[in-house]
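To: structure subgroup
Subject: Chain for Friday's discussion

All,

I'm putting the inputs and outputs inline so they're searchable in the archive.
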Amino acid sequence: MRRPLLVVLRVLPVLLVLPVLLALASAAGSTGARAAVRPFPADADVDYQLGGAAPVPADVGIVVRDRRSRPAPGRYGVCYVNAFQTQPDERALWRRHPSLLLRRGGRPVVDEAWGEVLLDLRTPATRAALLRIVGPWLDGCARRGFDAVELDNLDSYTRSDGLLTRGQALAYARLLAARGHAAGLAVAQKNLADLDGRRVGFDLAVAEECGRYAECGEYVRHYGSQVLMVEYRRADFDRTCAGWGASHPVVLRDRGLTPDGVHAWC
């Protein structure tokens, strides 16, 4: 049945305004989630404990641990998630999702340095499917009491033989950042020092070997004091301490990140 013209005229402005109102509500919700995240404490050292939990010295107020670990009690906890590549011990998981692994000629594309297969970020569909797997990992970090999440291998596209693009990586990173914020987590950029990750949704950075590759200043330019610095060679550690140790947390670790391995602070 045709509606009276008067009813249509009354409804039309609401229909025109509704998308704007929804967008504003969404933006407000996003801003609220971003405002709720907690920065790491000033004047605290950091320890990088991905290889297993170790005793935490009194001066260490920030501890990074794997997502399957528990955060260190009483410390600012950062939860490590390998979000762009597979972990070697998760082969069974990814065998159930073969279409989400990046392939060339039917063979998985592998980061040879770590034996990790790259995830396929090329389409909105694959990115959404990956979020359905990785997103619950972020939720789990929040449930266990972590304050932030580190998303490793943002630069996986540089190892993709041209199959992935920077834009695809950033599109996926935006999804992950939004999911982390929704869970109440601060979200840390890892890799791509030239990127101002705040535009993507990152809140802080984990700058691995930034002293070795002269990248610390780039991260600091984007994130100010919210940069955690990790070095694996004594000379690089000494250089990073000299340049940034007075203003930023810096830790020297052994590359295996073993619990009883090298631990040193500026």
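Points worth raising on Friday:
The radius of gyration is 21 Å.
Residues 5-36 form the longest helix (32 residues).

D.
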